[in-house]
Amino acid sequence: MMQLSERKKLILRSVVEMYVKAAEPVGSKAVVEALGSTVSSATVRSEMAELESLGLLEQPHTSAGRIPSSAGYRLFVNELMQSQNISSDDAVVINTALDTRSAEQTRLLDSVGSLTSRLTTYPAYAIARTTGLVSIARFDFIFVDSCSFIIVALLSNDTVKNKLVHLTSPFSQQILAKMSAVFNASFTGISEERITTNLITATERALGDQAGLVAVIAGFVIELLVETKAIGASVSGTANLLSLPEYRDVDKAQKIIRYLSDAGELVRLPSPDMAGEIKITIGAENLADELRDSSVVAVKYDAGSEMQGLIGVVGPTRMDYSKVAAHLSYIAGGLSRLLATSGSLPRGSSINPNEIGDDNIGEN
């Protein structure tokens, strides 16, 4: 982790916080005013120049102020961001909303997504998925011609999926038969997490695969297993993007909106490892090209036996990460308490702020 002096950290935090609020490059004069008489103008200019040389600040235009880079946001989130409480008013809104929601899964996801988007002002998504193991029980590969074949996969939950594959390099029926034997021996009964690069590479070497069949089949299996875990998904507030200066380019906004409308892409968004944990993915840390200029903040919550939920927001890297994290944590904590024992949201139940803790609620 990059080591910065306390003064550099103070200046970086000031730049991030001012840029988040105003969406305008921050000059040294504004930083001096924010910090009061603690540092001189010359010192601030020098420190900002050094922060830029370290890749933590960027200067979008000559003679303009600076803005945080993705690396600057990452350092801010990891080291400088202060925990933020949600307001008492927002706590009431959340409790009231959850108190009257239907137990039906799809409507619950819609409600949670809409509530999250309204409180954070960013597009929000809500996903419910199973935590039990779904795996491939059997593979069948059907030869069509020298460049085409069909993958047929029987899943452990008795569903059948298939895909027609076209390749540019030819292959024989014999290699396809070998593929069937190897995949039924090594790729059945396991989760997508165990289908690693090492397993794929070792399989390619063992079969002498020159046509890329192993990679295609393994990719289909991973995609299939990830998607089968999701039993519902909802996206709300995508139109909010159009009000943000970063997405005034309609083509850029539409690119993200189309991405979020694809349920298959939603289940592959960054996800925390544990319930209650916040995961923040900034800019180029996102694998999807559509999100390279955006950030994703997500949290998991327990939703009962063999069920888990995920709530997240997508927005510009110029995001109030602390505020978003506070709201997601509060909503996830309430949902976990309501759903963990019953697997559904009982009518007449609400989140009791006293059970969640005073640290999660502020007065304004």
Cα(first) to Cα(last) distance is 34 Å
Strand content: 15-25%
Secondary structure tally, helices: 13
Backbone CA Rg: 24 Å
Q: Residue-averaged pLDDT, rounded?
A: 84
**Count of beta strands:** 12
Helical residue percent band:
40-55%
Query: Major sheet: order of its strands?
Result: 8-4-11-10-9
Low-confidence stretches: 341-361
* Outline: globular
Order of helices and strands: HHHEEHEHHEEEEHHHEHHEEEHHE
Q: Mind summarizing the main beta sheet? A: 5 strands, antiparallel
| Coarse structural class | alpha+beta
Describe the model.
There is one protein chain. 34% of the residues are buried. It is built from 13 helices and twelve strands. The strands form four sheets. A five-stranded antiparallel beta sheet has the order 8-4-11-10-9. Helix 1 crosses helix 3 (41-53), helix 2 (28-35) packs across helix 3 and helix 5 (88-99) packs antiparallel against helix 6. It is an alpha+beta fold.
Q: How would you summarize this macromolecular structure in one to three sentences?
A:
This protein is an alpha+beta fold and 364 residues long.
